Each structure stands twice: as C-alpha cells, then as structure tokens.
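User: Please predict the structure of the protein below. I'd like the answer in structure-token form so I can feed it into my own downstream comparison script.

Assistant: Understood. Taking the following sequence of 360 residues as input:
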Amino acid sequence: MSYSLLATVFGQDLTMTGTYPALTYDLFFDALSNATSTVIISQVSGVHEGDYIALKANNEANILYYGQIITIDTDTTSGLMTLSINYIWNVLNSQILVTNRSGESYEAHINALINRYSTATSGVLRDITVASNTPYQVTSSNGAQATNFIDYLIRGFKLHNTVLSVDGIGQGQLNGKPFFWPKISIKQVTDTMNFNSDNWAFNNWTVTDSRLLRGYANELWLIDKDTSDMENPTIMAKYWLQNDGVVVNQLNNNVYQPTQVAIYLYDKTATDNPDNDSIGRANLGGNSYNHNIQFSVSLDNNFIRLDQIKLGLQSTIFYQGRQYKSVLTSYEISSDSAQVRLTFGNLRFGKNDLISDTSN
C-alpha cells in the first residue's frame, strides 16, 4: 500500500498554519525540470498561494518533500482543496547574470548567487549549508548574459551532479511566536547503487537508447565564420563524441559511424572566445545524455529503502545483457500506487560549462 502522508503548511512568514492528512498526492522529484506536484487535503482556511508545504510519512521525522504552493483549487461541494506545488527551488525562478567564472566550489558559487539575487535568504532560504566542494568553470560565449536561475541549477546537475536538498526543519522565535524554515544543503551526490532487471523487486521496465536511434550529432566542426567556400570550408578543429560520452579530437572505433555532423561558426575577431576543447565538450557533451531507463520498485522491498532514493544517485543498471552507467534524474511517488517510479539517464559530468544564447 502507499504511504500515509501528512502535509504541514507554513505561511510566507514561516509560521505554521496547520498539519493536515494528505488525502491523495502525486509527488514528482525532478532534477531536470521545475515539475509540479499535487496534494489534496480537506478544505481549511488560512492556506494561500505562495505558502510553503512540507510532506512526511506519518510517524516519521524525515521530510519527504518541501515545496511552495503555486495554485489552490477549492471544491466547496466535496470540501476538498487541490494544492499544486513546486519544489522549493521555485523561489529562485527568476533571472541571474552569467559571466565567465571559475573556482574550486560550484556549491559555494551557487550559495553566493542565492545570497546576491534572492530576497528569500531572509526567509525560506535563510539556512543553507555548502556540503561539498566541486571545481567548476563557466564560459559565457557571448559575454555577460541573463539566464533563468533554475535552468542554471539544472546545468549544474548535468555537469556536477549537484542538488539542493531539504535535510530537516529549523525552528526559531520571532516576537514570541514560533516560525519554521527548511534546512537546505547544496552538495554533489556521490552515493552509488546497482540495479538489475533480473531482480524481482523491479518491474515495468522501459528502456530507450538513442545511441541506436542515432538521433543526435556526434561530430563537430569548428569553422571560421568568414568562410566563403561551402565546398572547402576553413575547418579549425574537429571533435567526436564516443559511445561512452567522452568528447575526443581524434576519430576512433568508439565513435558510432556513420557520424552526424554539427557545425559551430567561430568568430576569430572576438576577444572572449572559449578554447576549442570547451566548445567541443559543450556542443557534443550534452548529446551523451542518450539513454532513458524507467522502472518501478515496490515501497515494501528488501533491496532499497525510500530514504535511499535521491536525485543524483549514481547507478550501474544491467538490462537484458546491456550495462548502463546512469544517474537518477527523477522519481514519482503517488497515493494511487504502492510503487515508486524511477527515471534514470546517462549524464556526462565535467568541470567546464559553455553557455551561449542557444544552449540548454
């Protein structure tokens, strides 16, 4: 059977509105999008859009989900309220400035950006811990530019396997009144676990492998943008994407052939161009996200506990004779199911990030 959850709502001033049984719920944990979850509770007063919500299993202390209420749909006939909620990073759904930058801690870099660009640091983001330190380098190919903060965090997950997680609830007093805030950590996930399709605990497998579909470029040409002869372009460098996700500058047997070519027009007159290797990794490296694996696991099993299921979990998955190096990118927990639906993809981690007007 599914978990029985309790939903605790906090006002925007972080004071507690109340704790209510979650009559039904559908929770999405997604490192690659600002996914919306839903929770239905009995109709109550004092719950507003923009409030915060924490969900945990009945009789357990660990926070399962902490988010922000986006919309409320009240059905006065049934006496039910449907809360649409986004993960707590939704408070960062605004723009930041991106420039060239490097350092020894991507996690501290994110914390500095939060403190600079978000007013929530005096409220719901008041308690952030930098729990690891990952070297990083950001190159903005077109100079200073604006980007969405959540998109920037997603890029960080793809490159560094870093996540924002809620590890608990803090409590304080303001004018004699208690208030509560999420304890957040920024960290690189290093936990590992292997999965095998032969294990009875895992079922409903869906596997797609774009390496076999060949729907992406795996060869990149850097061409002088002033080239005038289309039959004989001035090629400055070439890069290839191997089937293990590594970008190289020499064609070898680890590159699927025939290749599919992409072209990067290089402006030799620009003064702030990234180096060729960074361009190669940025334009081909993202294409190494080339498999998607989904399967379900019962909440009642002897192999993996719910508290071990975390975004960024690094895994080797064995499926029908194939081996996939994977990362947990999303999972879903629903009151309609006694199973958790897991989604894995293969992400190529690296130090360098090239951001351009057309990059994702």
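That's the full token string. The chain has a mean pLDDT of 89.
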